[in-house]
Design brief:
208 residues; alpha+beta; Pseudouridine synthase; two-stranded antiparallel ribbon; 17% helix
Length: 208
């Protein structure tokens, strides 16, 4: 199934939290067997707590490995939209900078030549005086990839305080202006495509 994860919700449990996650929802609603020691039943990819948008969730064990392979081989098309502080120097481009855990803050990722390959393509869709709305395509899928890359460009995602942005009063608590808005993939020779609208708080910032 494909669901629209709300901001503020974890994709799967962590050692630091007892709250309901997407994984718990899948188990409760679809009677998935709880056998994964990592507590990731149904979860083949994740979105950060503060990120909203489309997630593929696998309810059938027989197709789980297929989707794992699809993600690993970059055969699933994922597009994001983000609103950033300021404007990238180019209208479009490719950020090809390796990422590793930050030495100063273990919750973050940072550009580091010893890190893993990370590639993000971006295009400016709309600009205001203070912000830019970007479309982003993930070539790789590293943890916090978009957030770290945009911070490195000195255009952090609006309200992403972990990555250097200021608090924005139009953005809800536990949310940043990053959304997984488009997904497409193929299963059993059939093509699937999903797209959702921009959240209201995105629109309010771009129309200010």
């Amino acid at each position: 199934m494909v669901l629209n994860k709300p901001y503020g919700m974890l994709s799967h449990p962590t050692s630091h939290s007892k709250e309901i996650t997407v994984r718990d929802f899948l188990i409760n609603e679809y009677n998935l067997k709880t056998k994964d020691n990592n507590q990731r039943e149904g979860i083949v990819h994740r979105l950060d707590r503060v990120t909203s948008g489309l997630m593929v969730c696998v309810l059938d064990e027989n197709i789980f490995t297929y989707f794992q392979s699809q993600f690993k081989n970059r055969l699933i098309n994922k597009k994001y939209r983000a609103i950033v502080e300021g404007h990238p120097l180019a209208k479009s481009g490719e950020i090809n900078l390796p990422l590793a855990k930050s030495k100063k803050n273990r919750k973050k990722r940072e550009v580091n030549k010893t890190g893993r390959e990370a590639i993000t393509k971006f295009e400016i869709v709309k600009k205001t005086e203070k912000h830019a709305l970007l479309q982003l395509d993930l070539v790789t899928g590293r943890n916090h990839q978009i957030r770290a890359h945009l911070e490195h460009l000195k255009t952090p995602i609006v309200n992403d305080q972990l990555y250097g942005a200021k608090i924005h009063t139009n953005v809800p608590e536990n949310a940043i202006c990053l959304q997984s808005y488009y997904l497409s993939f193929t299963v059993n020779d059939k093509d699937y495509e999903f797209e959702i609208d921009m959240p209201e708080y995105f629109s309010s910032i771009m129309n200010m």
